[in-house]
Amino acid sequence: MGKAKAARRLKENEAQAVTRTIRVSPQKLNLVAAMIRGKKVDKALAELEFSNKRISDTVKKTLESAIANAENNHDLDVDQLVVAEAYVGKSIVAKRFMVRGRGRASRIEKPFSHLTIVVREVEEEAA
User: Fold this and answer.
1) To 10 degrees, the CA torsion angle through 26, 39, 62, 8?
2) What are 11-46's pLDDT values in tens digits?
3) Could you say which protein family the record assigns here (predicted)?
4) pLDDT tens across 58-90, in order?
5) CATH at 44
6) Does residue 127 belong to any structural domain of this protein?
């Protein structure tokens, strides 16, 4: 008995990985995600490896997880994978207060983000 298995949201030639509650603003994370969108996974990994952005290590880990999911769970060929989608979502915002001059205080917001990476297997065209 029990609940029926949910239908797969992705196509048969796709796999994804999600990292939630990353301590960086969505705007900054989206800059790194935009670097790898549409690229082959080996080029994307190389670009993340040598990026100066602090968050590129987390994005690299998520991409490696998506590649591992494609290989182990969905039997896709790693050499033909492309980053089909890399999108960022907003998460919680931690609010803090900082002491200012003249007995005042101002609010400091510390945003968090979600990252989803979808990789797709593409057939190489014969040249």
Assistant:
1) 100
2) 999 999 999 999 999 999 999 999 999 999 999 999
3) Belongs to the universal ribosomal protein uL22 family.
4) 999 999 999 999 999 999 999 999 999 999 999
5) 3.90.470.10
6) no
